[in-house]
Amino acid sequence: MSKYDDGLVRCTANYQPMTPISYLERAARTYPDHTAVIHGNARSSYSQLWQDCCRLASSLVAHGVQRGDTVTVMLSNTPPMIHAHYGISLANGAVLHALNTRSDAATIAFQLDHAETKVIIVDREFSTVMAEALAMASVNPLVIDYDDLEYPDDAPHPKGAAIGSLDYAELLASGDPDFKGTMPADEWDAISLNYTSGTTGNPKGVVYHHRGAALMALNNVIHGEMGKHPVYLWTLPMFHCNGWSFSWTVAVQAGTHVCLRWVRAGAIYAAIADHGITHLCGAPIVMSTLLNAPEAEQRPLPHRVVFNTAAAPPPEAVLQSMAQAGFHVQHLYGLTETYGPTVVNEWHTDWDALPPAEQAAHKARQGVRYLSLSDLTVLDPESMQPVPADGETLGEVMFRGNVVMKGYLKNQTATAEAFAGGWFHSGDLGVIHADGYIQLKDRSKDIIISGGENISSIEVEDALYKHPAVAMCSVVAMPDPTWGERPCAFIELREGHDISEASIIEHCRSKLASYKCPARVVFDDLPKTSTGKIQKFVLRARAVELVETNE
Known about the structure:
Pfam family, one: AMP-binding
Number of helices: 17
Domain AMP-dependent synthetase/ligase: 24-409
GO molecular function: ligase activity
InterPro entries: AMP-bd_C, AMP-bd_C_sf, AMP-binding_CS, AMP-dep_synth/lig_dom, ANL_N_sf
Strand content: 15-25%
Number of strands: 26
Domain AMP-binding enzyme C-terminal: 459-533
């Protein structure tokens, strides 16, 4: 035994499990009167927010919630969603399951049964689809309605009928504001459950632990450049990877949550101007929404605003327009299995002196690992050996560290496959550059194999984005009798622009090798998820239909 182990034991005095729940408790003690939540005309201080979370926890316990029980919520970015990220865990160590609010009844029913849901809290905006799902599901949970008193008068649709046996406001009122909730006995304990998109079958349930959530909250403060009392606007759905863990991050620096039910340009600009927003997150479509907003909806930014974006790297023109508007865009990358983004395009100041084309090339890279991600690399998935750091050799991007999921709920086979060889296999194909920065080239399922040659859909999309008429695009494989597959491009045009398929293909020929150019170009609105990601599986089906229609 080493002298550094002899008599030096772990005990409650020198070791406590990490949990993001403690961040909110500290903020409430340190800044009790600071505004924690803004929702329409409603305001909550940090002491009130902590008490509401304790009320929720005590009420759930009173209704029989135990350790390991799943509490499902179907909520917009409203105060109860913030309560859920703390109060559910405080309820004897229950686990939060946040539903995608755009899910259909069958998907919801599958998740309720798979998660063995004990309690559901549902916003009345979604009560109709939830009622359909409950009729299909096998579980019989306690259902609690949330009737949002700040529901806008100009809402696109009215609230649905109440379907539960309890009202959320009454549930909170019955709770104990001084309830001593349960902190995790082990930081490996589950804190939340998030389901993948399930585009190739039933979705998989990704389980997060307290340690990962706590570390991600700190990571976001550091890599998101969040100083004391940031003001965070909820443009990113909190159901998506728990809002990339920003649901727990804001409390670290005693910031303010500004709730937003729907992503609308006018509401975003108004919030920035009226509340002094400092940070927001979203997919590239949120940037497009802001930049393409009517002049009447736009408001000048009172200060520099950090915009964290993930998915495909934004086109250079978009980055320039965002900078001119006063936004500082940070390019991130990650997956549901990694608590959201865990990779950042860490910018070097000396790159500012590079020619624009070289700057764009650097900005297109996904970047380097977050501080608490132990390792990030590109490996040959067969040999599990590193690919050369030459920026050209393709391999699979792999992760290792404390901000990787526990695994997939009740799916040992999928968990073992994901962690084969001691790494999390992302399914993303990429390269690693000499300086250690990784760059995605495609999802393994999105690579187009034409005549035996691999074509990166991202590379073709980059070329398309260089055309001034292209607002948004996506490239997928289209079956071809001669070449096996050829690229097919789907494009949303900028307002006021009109261009032919032939012109787009000619533009691509000036940027790409001929075999990489789209064989077909379709002008149409692109199908997107609730977080703004383009649904390539829908486009792949459309590409097949195009071929079948022409046969």
